[in-house]
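Hi L.,

You mentioned the student needs an example of a multi-chain input paired with its predicted structure. This one should do, with 317 residues in total across all chains.
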Amino acid sequence: MIYRDQYAPGPARGAEVRKDGEEKWTLVLVREMRHSPEKVWQALTDPAQLREWAPFDADGSLGTAGSTVKLTTVGAPALHVTETTVKRADPPRSNIVGSLEYGWGANDMRWELEALGAGTRLTLWTSIDRRFIAWGAAGWHICFDVLDHLLGGTPIGRTVGPDAVKFGGWKQLRDEYAKQLGVEKPA
Amino acid sequence: MKIKLTSVFVDDQEKALRFYTDVLGFTKKSDFSNGPFRWLTVVSSDDPDGTELQLALNDNPAAKTYQQAIFQQGQPAALFFTDDVKGDYERIKGRGAEFTMPPTDTAGSTIVKLNDTCGNLIQIVQLAGW
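Structure written out for the whole complex:
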């Protein structure tokens, strides 16, 4: 992981919150990737690639609508496994936006992959406990950096759960998102 | 090797946190989240470096089944120890908790049982001799 030492997460950006009621909010994250939608789609659905960057492991492909997949949260002190059925899996094609939907526990996950020049505009809508919205934004920020490096051939290694919290830039990043999203600074 | 932590399943972590702190009088110790997972523990206010109790969400079928089965049998999901069970009973009752067993003398101890509102019975024990 020679690239890991050089990695810095950069400033908080591309996040907003949609509030549906008191408790359940949706975090919307937009990230521009230097890689094609087809390549990003593979990384979002293939268990072997998810293991390199995502905050969960999948025991099967997420790329087929209707299939049932077990998701294991990475870095949880106690084993945490939830089962999901993929609701929608439309791969990106020329001029067609890719769309992927499934649940991660109680969190609804919706991804869109839109061609942007030679790269991809990746959007994630994820419902999340409002107390942890800045954590979620900071966590996904680092995951997206790890994904971008992975696809670019300069891997920095999966950084999730306690590894993300221990990471040097974590607190600053989390507090920047809390400020941008207008939520209280987490404890 | 040390016993540092034990767990109870709860049906709602936020409700559980309020009950275990505001009603029972414990203190929040750890609160972390990764996606749908939330690591939440409380500790005795009298022993903040002591054994932690994890309030684990019962978000899988095995946890729900286990929790309901022992609840229906009247089995407590956790036991806490005190040197003043009658005082604790009055204090916790005064904060609105529902007791399924008032202070009751058994061989060697006095016990109470209460409903934690999150799917569990909790037993508080005062050993005779303490």
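You could point out the following to them. The longest strand of chain A covers residues 119-129. The interface with chain B takes residues 55-56, 73-78, 80-82, 104-107, 128-129, 131-132, 135-136, 139, 160-162, 165, 187 of chain A (CB under 8 Å).

Best wishes,
N.
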